[in-house]
Predict the structure.
Amino acid sequence: MYKPLADEIRPKTLDDVVGQQHILGPNGMLRRIVESGQIPNMIFYGPSGTGKTTVARIIAEKTNRTLRKLNATTAGIADIKQIIAELDTLLTPGGVLLYLDEIQYFNKKQQQSLLEFIEDGRITLIASTTENPYFCVFGAVLSRSTVFEFKPVGARDAQKAVERAVTLLNERRSLPLCFEEGVSASVAAACGGDVRKAMNAVELLFSAAPEGGTVTLDDARAITQRSAMRYDRDGDEHFDCLSALMKSLRGSDPDAAMHYLARLLEAGDLIGACRRILCSASEDIGLAYPQAVGVVKACVDSALQLGLPEARLPLAEACLFLATLPKSNSACMAIDAAIADLRAGHVGSIPRELQNVHADGAGFEREQGYLYPHNFPGHWVKQQYLPDELKDRRYYEYGDNKTEQAARRYWEEIKK
């Protein structure tokens, strides 16, 4: 019976697991917990192919508990009830260690059905998820569990798994395959931190090569093309990539901006990229170069009209433009401060001289007292515009860029 290489080569001990040194290294917290034998309820969070299932299996073998596995994409309440029925019987003398894969697909009721049993210890839950557990796991389950984050496996660590797989498969051949220099490194780098992808690539390379043949770099590139892309349209990767793009623009790093823009466009997320770029023009460049909004809007309009792949050109232009411009968040800080006052209840009445001249209705009009600035030198006259409660409030602080400092000097001279 066929068994996938990724499953066949699955590590049997924590020392064989590649990557995750932050939790499985010599002083890693998860390693110390496993070695203690006192296994708490845990949630493993991270992208696929990073060792979550493998580590859960290793933990199960180190305990005296009966392992039960469910996948939330196919399991339901009936499956949970069947496990509960086994508790306190000869089938589960030491209790149950339940490995629940993809817990995010269980609804609130399904997750709640486990509460009583993980609370009293009859079930030890190890759940895995590729989505943020603080969003997708029911709060009561989350509060009774410890979250461990699994990170994408680095290329150097993934290469160890690739080489181990090559050795195993070559041992089964009468004439082993030869690998061009750099093939293993290429496969490891192209897997995007997903060891399962790397194992699948190795298996395909062996399937396509004749006995005693040679696997070339071109073969490796052909089998792994675009596989390093890790992206989900409405999950963490989506929002992380958008956040990284905007922070790169704000941080004036044109190279990083190009990288994250490329990731978004390769995933086909044209709208997300456009929104972040438009936002950055006002939030991060702002009054340091007010014309940026118009330039970026023109680039975004061009991109949307062109569509992919040509849209990459005006968007690259917009990103490089924003990344290399002077920065100011004075407009963002000003409006946020004003909104904060409103939400705190600091409103006040609009001064009479600023109210609509017809506000009192026909036949009952009062003198407004409004002073028309254009009738005064410099088109300015001292006058209260804020409500009495806020008359001394200052929301806007001039940025330290050339444009805003020139405006500050102009108004200081006028208002003398």
